[in-house]
Amino acid sequence: MTTWLHPGLFVLLAAALGGLMPVQAVASEVELMGSNGPKQMTALLPIDDVELAYQVFGAPSPATPLVMIMGYGGLMEMWPPTIIETLARERQVIVFDHRGMGHSSSSDQAYSIARFAADTHALLQALGVERAQVLGWSMGSFVAQELALQHPEQVTKLVLLSGSCGGPSAIWPDPEVWARLLDLSGTLEVRVQRMFENLFPPAWLAITLDPLQVFPPITAPIEDAHLRRQGETLRAWPGVCDRLAEISAETLLMTGTDDIVIPSANSRLMAERIQGASLIQLHGGGHGFFYQEPERTARLLGAFLAGE
């Protein structure tokens, strides 16, 4: 089954985000049409046995580029425009779809967090990016940690949003939360409601008339088969809790105090084990805290990423 999240459900991303500026020439392009915005071009780049869809925002700059790694079930279109806009003022920002997601192709090769990290590394290499700032959210934080450990020479700064180091040392969600996270049943409306319950605290939902307004428009398809494959990688990841001391990149961890998907205790654990790591806990924030407070998140990220 292929799920399309209709652009009418979301605020317009195309008007908020500026133009696409690929770092180098690419093999092919996919034309995307926003709900009522201008056409946008998403580039496709051959990586190993697949083609990865990506976009680059911001003008070429002496500043180190930033790559942003999405979480489970996420698309590059889902990053808040405010965050992209703010960070792209000072550096180029690279976003992409994991294999099998959105306009990225897939293959029979098994999914794994290490595989996703290798994809990210190969994408950066193909774009001519030797050193990058790396940001990962949720499952993307797993990928970011693997990348920082596999290729420490490539990662200058590391940002882990709603992160966990996985494996038996991690603090996992309650069984009912985990089941809801992986549940692909029901209508679009039912699934969106489950998403709200996973991402946002009840107190915030109670005072937010239309939570959909915090999301940009989604135009790319999400296939359930690939969601299932991604979901299987989450528990299968052995984790890197016992290797966190090896991370050499300057690291920032950000977490919402009311996160039920990846409890904030995970970020505190990681901050203790990564040498020199900084930790920011946003009171009342859920798993998707940066959708709740995009301007504040953008300012905090910009301050950490500056000066390189």
TrEMBL record:
Top-rank taxon: Bacteria
Stated name of the protein: AB hydrolase-1 domain-containing protein
Domain AB hydrolase-1 stretches: 65-169
InterPro entries: AB_hydrolase, AB_hydrolase_1, AB_hydrolase_fold
Any Pfam family matching the protein: Abhydrolase_1
Natural source organism: Thiocapsa imhoffii
